[in-house]
Amino acid sequence: MEAVYFKFILSLGLVLIFARICGELSERYFKQPAVLGELVAGIIISPFLLGGLIFCDPIILNFATVHNPFGLQGDFDIMYIIANIAVIILLFQAGVETDIRSFIKQAPTGLAVAFGGVILPFIGGYFVTKALCPDVGIGGWLFMGAVLTATSIGVTVRILMDMGRLNTREGSTILVGAVVDDIIGLIILSIVIELAQTGEFEILEAVKIGAIGFAVWFGLLMIGVKLHKYISRYLLNPFKRSGTAPIVALIFGFIVAYLVTLVGLHPVVGAYVAGLMFSACQEKEEIVEKGRPIMLFAAPFFFAYLGMMVNLRLFGAPGVAVLAVLLIVAAIAGKVIGCYIPARFPGKLSHNAGMIVGVGMVPRAEVGLIVAAAGYIAGAISLGLYGAAVAVSVITTLVTPAMLKPFFKRQLVQVSQPVSDNSESSDST
Asked: Could you give all domains of the chain from N- to C-terminal order, each with its CATH number?
């Protein structure tokens, strides 16, 4: 037992330092957000590459080991748990740093963006899979469509924070869209799993699950908006003298992250709304200041772990490469176009800001992996389709920072240039 414990300490330290080094290299020499380097670090030290030599004894590199990359014994994977703790901290911190007024103001546009970003990718994933894999049946076609609808709010938030664009119109629109996307994805996932397992589904039951999830999330948000004075007075004030109010806020974030899972939502959605609750409190700046070092310590582990779950050997199966390439094109184009249109026209954002929203909704990351894993476990998709789904999640996550950067640069240039039309000026900021 002690040997496993010591091995865990070594593994944790090596992952964190390697992720930090690669993140620094990404920012300093490649001029890309640190998250990109952290993801690449995870792929390099995964159990399917160097990790198989560094961290553990030889293991069978198949799906069963994806969530246990270091071969640790026990009923759960401690690395997986730490990764989820890290992303909860990240989303809570992002929620606290968000301008809640801007978030609420952009809610209608974000809602439209979420629906646009679900419909086109789903259609693309369904028909691409149907054309290339006609034998897998409607369950497999639907599941691959569901994989393409996902948006990783964790990756999106980190990119926006790294680029200093969290509290912009397009940043708020992306965040609203990503949250609603998670709820819509919950409905779609429940439908396709039931269809794969029973051959039929109850649409009203699926909609009911989504409605309950949305109602709980919205109710928590309104509590933060309307009752923030009481949150400050009764929850945070008793701990101000000891300086631990920010820690209490974070603990509360973990509790809310758990509570939303009772209605089927992902913990990160609860963590983010908990952060929004505290963003309206007078202690916001103190929570931001003391919480950021914790987030900067923990978050790289989550992104490195995402990379460590990638088995590149899955991409070499017959037909997987072609299917993966077409699905990646459908995934990127579907999100960009599907989110750009409602952001650009009903939302009255500029062309550049609309593109930022579209591209910002592209990464699938852990959400795509979770959906793909659920499909594989349910028997809806084969190992080959699972490999293609993993490729979609990985590539869309890796390309998003590089795709976003030119649009952010262009926006800064537009803001710095004098313009005669005030409406165009305000539109680009």
From this structure: 10-57+79-417 (1.20.1530.20)
